[in-house]
């Protein structure tokens, strides 16, 4: 009972600490907006759930069961992705505020602390899911296709499908936080890849989100009225253009039958969440940084402390040090010095990741040479995206470093810091992009692809501008890591031309997509300038 | 450099969304020398320092550096400013050399000059041997010494140091005091602290603030004069300590074989057997000022 009370206290404190922030308020507003857009209007340009043939779009009537299941599936998908980034700083906060060091000196067991934090994350994510649920109730009335409110039909998919997922995400977030390698930017990227690649691979064999069960139940109801659904494609997620040339056909679905099989799967997700939380407590460093550094093999011998020797010695005066005055001529600002200092500083970030640091430079060198020597299409379409993904953790710190390391007061009290330092940070980021992608740029130039070189140049300007703007405004590296990885994955890597910000795809270069990103770059830089000015003035 | 003046006029600071005034109608005219800023925790010292260092702006009032309004034109003072905040961080992956070179570039100090200056400063703050160690491995006192070094990098005309000796060992404190005394000749040094002995050892001018207001502006001698004839030595049995604390303002309690030796700050003799103390110290003058202000506030 006592342990339960401690668990509750940890969960409550962490929860209140998280929800009493403007950041959470913004997240809640976005959650409500999500609840709204998950249920598209009859004349909306997009759909979120149903079946589409060339002439008709089929979906259920917006009753409590359909809306509940639809919103639960979408919430499950999006919160497993975004929710991770909302909650993956619970232990970090204890470390930064030094509360962790106090906690470490108490008799609290690691497992209780870790599970308490996982429960805190779970409570935060469940609050977000509950807000979407309430929004979906409102949406049923707003859309007005059925006014019969069935709370169980609406809420059951949340309880059965969403909540176990939230516990799983909450526990994974804690696990990542307790592993030095997975904490911070590298872990963020790893999680994104896990979500983007790992989950789709798993989905055929394991119904993690409950989509297979719900889809099967819905299609049975749909097929009874419209047998042609069997030949139509299933749509889940945001799909545009479905309603333009198609008629809408609706059927009534009364909800999913919760079979033993479904409940077993959900129970498995729950158990998995608990196991991961407990696993996180194994080898938890308990805020002792020494446990996270490499162990030394040999301890050097200590000098013997000789009291007799000390008593014989005479009192020496304090060593006098004369500080020579600085000549006024030496106080002349040089942008080059500061830009190079910023460049050295961003490269130093790699020391946080000894593994990446050592191999990162080697891989970057290989990519650079490969970008120069490989055939042009391979160089620009494969080597360039890889070369410009490697430094993501370096770029992501741009604009956040001062607040993160609390050097802001030292730096912001320097002369003309807004123009000088901001420009130097940006320049350092651009220099990094130029060096990392220089092999491909040379290859393009050697082939006379000057438009390609120009598009490449826009990419080299766009990436640091995006990082700087997001860093300054959000104060966190997470947002860039998330957005850039998504953009990089969906755009250049999956050949989505409108999102090719780096000129990797010949089609997008010819279509002049780079012009759009050049304009965005200018806007991002302007926003970064305004944001930093506000930061400095705010004090 | 000739004329040097920092003029703070009727400065108020109210934090957003709060009725609380961190500073209230505070005015100070500061010239070359060391000004010790004393005050209890939460008095508004750091807020005042942050306003002078252009980190934050006053809600109302003006701050002029050599006649230039630095609230409107902060770069005028930033170019000649050295600032050591009370709470600051460093880049953990850089070593002392790299961090100071970075700060020198930010402050616009020429690379060659910075190299010599950093050598001097690292010697001065006794970190030469640790200069290649990442700052992330530094102790609190070592980080504080790096903070002191960066504040002096650009040979500032105005040096603002907020609780500079916190975390320093006795040798580091002594060395820092010597430095302040040396620097003060032709520049303004503002030393904010609650360690009264640091101010006593260095400052030629003292300002005491409490609850955001300026209580006293005086030289150390005049401040000591305030409590002349008001400090009493008294020996009491241990059992009477609680009653004595309730009745009088005590500046020190020392346990001896014959009882507790206490120093009482009082306008008149607190007890028949009390003896007038020979030499009051600055801490007693400070306690006296704060307690009279508190008394006035509660009346």
Describe the protein's architecture and organization:
- The complex is a heterodimer of chains A (539) and B (299).
- The radius of gyration of chain A is 28 Å and the shape is globular.
- The mean pLDDT of chain A is 88.
- Chain A has 539 residues and is mainly alpha-helical.
- In chain A, strand 1 and strand 2 form a beta hairpin.
- Helices cover 66% and strands 5% of the residues of chain A.
- With 299 residues, chain B is of the alpha/beta class.
- In chain B, the strands form three sheets. Chain B has a six-stranded mixed sheet, sandwiched between helices.
- In chain B, a hairpin with a 2-residue loop joins strand 9 and strand 10.
- Chain B is globular, with a radius of gyration of 22 Å.
- The mean pLDDT of chain B is 88.
Describe what is shown at a glance:
The complex is a heterodimer of chains A (539) and B (299). Chain A is mainly α and 539 residues long.
Give short descriptive properties of this protein:
heterodimer, A: 539 residues, mainly alpha, 4-stranded mixed β-sheet, 22 helices, 4 strands, B: 299 residues, alpha/beta, 4-stranded antiparallel β-sheet, globular
């Amino acid at each position: 009972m006592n342990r339960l009370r401690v668990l509750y206290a940890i969960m409550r404190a962490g929860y209140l600490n998280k929800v009493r922030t403007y950041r959470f308020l913004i997240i809640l507003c976005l959650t409500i907006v999500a609840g709204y857009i998950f249920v598209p209007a009859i004349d909306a340009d997009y759909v979120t759930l149903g079946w589409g043939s060339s002439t008709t779009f089929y979906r259920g009537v917006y009753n409590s069961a359909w809306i509940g299941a639809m919103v639960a599936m979408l919430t499950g998908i999006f919160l497993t992705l975004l929710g991770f980034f909302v909650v993956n700083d619970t232990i970090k906060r204890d470390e930064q505020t030094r509360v962790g060091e106090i906690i470490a000196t108490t008799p609290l067991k690691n497992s209780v602390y870790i599970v308490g934090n996982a429960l805190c994350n779970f409570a935060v994510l469940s609050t977000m899911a509950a807000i979407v649920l309430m929004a979906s109730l409102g949406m049923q009335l707003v859309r007005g296709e059925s006014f019969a409110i069935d709370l169980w039909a609406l809420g059951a998919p949340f309880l059965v499908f969403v909540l176990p997922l939230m516990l799983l995400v909450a526990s994974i977030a804690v696990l990542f936080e307790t592993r030095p390698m997975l904490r911070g930017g590298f872990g963020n990227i790893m999680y994104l890849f896990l979500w983007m690649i790992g989950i789709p691979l798993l989905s055929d064999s394991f119904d993690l989100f409950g989509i297979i069960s719900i889809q099967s139940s819905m299609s049975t109801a749909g097929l009874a009225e419209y047998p042609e659904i069997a030949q139509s494609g299933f749509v889940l997620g945001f799909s545009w253009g479905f309603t333009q040339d198609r008629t809408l056909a609706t059927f009534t679905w009364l909800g999913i039958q919760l079979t033993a099989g479904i409940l077993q799967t959900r129970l498995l997700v729950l158990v998995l969440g608990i196991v991961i939380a407990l696993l996180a407590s194994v080898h938890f460093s308990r805020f002792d940084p020494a446990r996270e550094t490499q162990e030394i093999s040999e301890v050097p011998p200590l000098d013997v402390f000789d009291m007799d020797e000390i008593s014989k010695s005479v009192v020496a005066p304090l060593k006098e040090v004369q500080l020579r005055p600085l000549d006024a001529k030496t106080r002349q600002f040089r942008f080059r010095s500061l830009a190079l200092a910023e460049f050295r500083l961003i490269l130093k970030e790699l020391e946080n990741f000894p593994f990446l640091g050592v191999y990162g430079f080697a891989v970057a060198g290989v990519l650079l040479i490969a970008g120069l020597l490989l055939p042009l299409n391979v160089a620009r379409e494969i080597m360039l995206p890889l070369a410009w993904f490697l430094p993501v953790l370096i770029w992501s710190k741009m604009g956040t470093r001062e607040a993160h390391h609390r050097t802001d007061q030292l730096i912001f009290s320097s002369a003309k810091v807004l123009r000088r330092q901001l420009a130097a940070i940006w320049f350092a980021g651009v220099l990094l992009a130029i060096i990392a992608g220089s092999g491909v740029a040379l290859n393009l130039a050697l082939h006379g692809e000057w438009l390609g070189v120009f598009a490449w140049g826009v990419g080299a300007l766009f990436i640091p501008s995006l990082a700087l703007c997001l860093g300054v405004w959000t104060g966190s590296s997470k947002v860039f890591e998330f957005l850039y990885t998504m953009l990089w994955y969906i755009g250049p890597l999956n050949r989505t031309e409108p999102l090719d910000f780096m000129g990797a795809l010949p089609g997008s270069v010819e279509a002049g997509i780079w012009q759009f990103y050049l304009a965005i770059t200018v806007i991002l830089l302007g926003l970064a300038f305004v944001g930093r000015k506000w930061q400095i003035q705010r004090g | 450099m000739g004329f040097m003046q920092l003029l703070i006029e009727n400065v108020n600071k109210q934090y957003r969304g709060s009725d609380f005034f961190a500073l209230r109608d505070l005015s100070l005219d500061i010239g070359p020398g060391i000004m010790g800023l004393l005050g209890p925790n939460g008095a508004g010292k750091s807020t005042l320092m942050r306003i002078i260092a252009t980190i934050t702006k006053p809600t109302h009032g003006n701050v002029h550096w050599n006649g230039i309004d630095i609230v409107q034109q902060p770069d005028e003072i930033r170019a000649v400013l050295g600032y050591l905040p009370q709470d600051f961080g460093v880049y953990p992956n850089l070593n002392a050399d790299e961090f100071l070179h970075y700060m020198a570039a930010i402050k616009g100090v020429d690379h060659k000059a910075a190299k010599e200056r950093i050598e001097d400063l690292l010697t001065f703050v006794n970190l030469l041997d640790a200069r290649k160690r990442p700052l992330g491995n530094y102790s609190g006192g070592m980080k504080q010494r790096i903070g002191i070094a960066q504040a002096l990098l650009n040979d500032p005309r105005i040096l603002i140091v907020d609780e500079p000796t916190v975390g320093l060992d006795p040798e580091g404190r002594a060395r820092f005091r010597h430095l302040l005394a040396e620097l003060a000749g032709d520049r303004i040094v503002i030393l904010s602290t609650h360690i009264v002995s640091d101010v006593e050892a260095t400052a030629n001018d003292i300002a005491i603030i409490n609850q955001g207001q300026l209580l006293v502006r005086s030289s150390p001698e005049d401040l000591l004069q305030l409590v002349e004839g008001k400090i009493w030595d008294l020996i009491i049995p241990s059992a009477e300590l609680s009653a004595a604390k309730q009745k009088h303002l005590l500046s020190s309690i020392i346990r001896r074989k014959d009882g507790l030796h206490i120093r009482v700050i009082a306008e008149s003799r607190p007890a028949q057997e009390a003896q007038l103390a020979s030499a009051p110290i600055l801490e007693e003058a400070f306690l006296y000022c704060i307690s009279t202000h508190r008394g006035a506030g509660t009346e």
